[in-house]
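Database export, one record per block. Field names are fixed; values are copied verbatim from the stored entry.
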Amino acid sequence: MNAEKIPDIIIGRLPVYLRALQRMADNGLKTTSSQELGEHVGISAAQIRKDISQFGEFGKQGTGYSIAYLLDKLREILKVDRIWDVALVGAGDMGHALANYPGFQNRGFCIVAIFDNSDEKIGQKIGAFVVQDADNIVESIKAANIKIAMLTVPAIAAQSVAEKLIQAGVRAILNYAPINLNVPNTVKVQYIDPATHLQRMTYYL
């Protein structure tokens, strides 16, 4: 299967299905239907069937989906059937919150290194981590073979830090800085800017 041929909007819905299925499994359910899953996530049953069928046939007419099987398959498709090491750049308030967030590990991700360029923050502990000097970011990330990074630096610094991350071999960046990054096509960036999402919602108010 060529990942580039699957529309990104479909890929974006798969983690939503995965989260809902995990909740069902945690509640002891063994099977579900596209109708039931749709009620959990607010997406039509037809859309769910269409999305999932892009990757193969995982359910049976009349019996629905095995939750455990579909969970395994979605984890495999999203490549979170393993744990990905993640670097966190920026040890401010957002960096602290992400470093202490317990919800990454059971969904395929583990923060393994934190970097900052502030003399006050370098050497400080955040949870189990000691903040490392951002000057060493390329060497440290290369040595650890880290492919994913989260960026919580000021907008003015985000592009230069992203370039260092890419130089170090990072292929995916979750960017919390309120700025669009200029990166090669081989690098995937996702943006999380709360103000942008709030502005999108106020249109409807």
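Remark 1: The two ends are 42 Å apart (CA to CA).
Remark 2: The helical segments are 8-26, 34-41, 45-53, 67-77, 93-99, 137-144, 155-167, 194-202.
End of record.
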